[in-house]
Amino acid sequence: MNITIIGAGYVGLTSAALFAKLGHKVRILEKDAQKVARLKIGKALFYEPGLDLLISSLIRSGALVPIDDYADAIVKAEVIFICVGTPPRKNGQADLSQIFSAAQGIACYIKNGAVVAIKSTVPVGTAERVKKIIQRKSLVHFEMASCPEFLREGSALADTQKPDRVVIGVNSEHARKVLIKLHEKLPGERVVTDLRTAEIIKYASNAFLATKISFINEIANLCEAVKANVDDVALGMGLDPRIGKAFLKAGIGYGGSCFPKDTRALNSMAKTHYYDFKLLKAVIEVNQLQRKIFMEKVRTALGSLRGKKIGVLGLAFKNNTDDVRESAALEIIKELLKKGARVTAYDPQAASNAKKVIPKLIVAKKPGEVANNADVILILTEWPEFRTLRWDVFKKKMHRPLILDGRNLLDQKTMLALGFEYISMGR
Ligand code: NAD
Q1: 417 CA distance to ligand 1 middle (Å)
Q2: Residues annotated catalytic, as ranges
Q3: Strands 421-423 and 402-405
Q4: Would strands 165-170 and 143-146 be described as parallel, antiparallel, or unpaired?
Q5: E strand segments, 151-252
Q6: Which of 17, 19, 45, 208 gets the highest tally of CB atoms within 10 A of its CB?
Q7: Does the pLDDT of residue 2 top 90, yes or no?
């Protein structure tokens, strides 16, 4: 099939690689000409394990073609996937300007019988609005679909190749048949439903995962009050298959380009429809509070932060990615700098993206540098390699052997045995 993917971000580029690998002719349309030029010479746009190699071999073989011109990209496409960003507006609503501008571009060149599927996370009713935009400029017959994406940054490729489920929202038999056929080689359940239901499935999924995180964080806070251990509580809960172990890790809360914006967008969608989503509002509030609770631990341990030397391990919003969008780590660092602390930070992948957000941040080339004369080391991202650092050597370099582990990453007994003052979340 001839497929066009619009937007070469995490979702677009990964989906393009997937469909090209499945044997389709894929064009990836990106408005940023610099990104297209980088793709053409096989350069990565962001860090995602395994993706660069696959993309460059697919481009070399001609299975995947990067393009910045709508005419070339759309005119032959049988299926068009819209994968552009839907960032948050100040009021919490999803900003749909990238979606609508893609729709305008599609309208000029769409061919008869094409299916336009939205993969971006969008509020209910967006597919219908996109349809109207295209119809204003085009007389051809086309169908709309909603195919929300569930990949996780850090394991995007594996997630798209082995999805748990493929959600297909359609209002026509033609679109259903085309999309079922397109996904036929992929495992996972098919959830075929209408456009509006498919759109809300994505928000409901992310909001539920965020709820699990905020729930375990509240349990962690209570564990501190009653002197219990949240890790064991999470294990004891998670072994119940009705609950499940995933997303029960206490810490400084969720961040990233999806959970914060999607929970706010869902809440805002509820408000628009006069529904008071009490549980979701609490999930959002607890997540914000969790960072404040961590900052309070830092202040209690160090007293005044002015002039204190703080080493930070982890800048990305989670491990295995270079994405720092709404990263809890960056929010905490901004607060530390505001209070006069001197911060040196290390991240295996996200340092240069973090520097773009906080230009005065001192970034270390090696993790050991953050320990030099430090009054404390904060662990803010759960990179597994931080577990196996030479902590005995770190301790010798530090001014005070104090660790605040915002991700409950390290083993408490080991760190205490090494002679650290070790503070974590709910343990
Ligand atoms: P992104 O910001 O990384 O990428 C979007 C890309 O689209 C950018 O390269 C941008 O230049 C390009 N673009 C914007 N408007 C365009 C236009 N009119 N024509 C051509 N290109 C255009 O976004 P992302 O992280 O890939 O997310 C995309 C969507 O998928 C969002 O709605 C997001 O919520 C959703 N989503 C993201 C993830 C994730 O983990 N990142 C997972 C599932 C769903």
Answers
A1: 46
A2: 258
A3: parallel
A4: antiparallel
A5: 165-170, 189-193
A6: 17
A7: yes
| Over residues 37-62, mean pLDDT | 93
CB 12 within 8 A of CB 81: yes
pLDDT at residue number 213:
98
Is 90 exceeded by the pLDDT of residue 42?
Answer: no
Angle at alpha carbon of residue 32, lines to 206 and 43, rounded to 5°: 85
> Among candidates 187, 190, 160, which has minimal Cα distance to 81?
160
Of 342, 344, 315, the residue nearest 330 (C-alpha): 315
Report the distance separating Cα 58 and Cα 64, nearest Å. Answer: 5
CA-nearest residue, atom 2 of ligand 1: 85
pLDDT at residue 44, as a whole number? 84
Tell me if 110 sits within 8 A of 116, measured CB to CB: yes
Task: Name the band, by pLDDT with cuts 50, 70 and 90, for residue 3.
Answer: very high
Q: Strand, coil or helix: what is 68?
A: coil
For residues 158-164, give the mean pLDDT: 97
Atom of ligand 1 nearest to the CA of 94: 32
Ligand 1 centroid vs 168 CA: distance in angstroms? 19
Structure tokens at 13: 């580029």
Q: Which residue has the tokens 């408490």?
A: 412
Please state the rounded mean pLDDT for residues 9-19.
Answer: 97
Q: What is the pLDDT of residues 182-211, one digit of tens each?
A: 999 999 999 999 999 999 999 999 999 999
Tokens of 221: 């806070």
Q: Provide the 8-state DSSP code for 172.
A: S
As a whole number of Å, the CA-based R_g of the chain is 23
* pLDDT tier at 43, thresholds 50, 70, 90: confident
The DSSP letter of residue 371 is G
pTM of the model: 0.96
Give the phi and the psi of residue 182 in degrees, each rounded to 5. Answer: -60, -35
Distance of CA 210 to the CA centre of its chain: 12
Residues 367, 371: Cα–Cα separation, whole Å:
8
* Ligand 1, atom 37: closest residue by C-alpha: 11
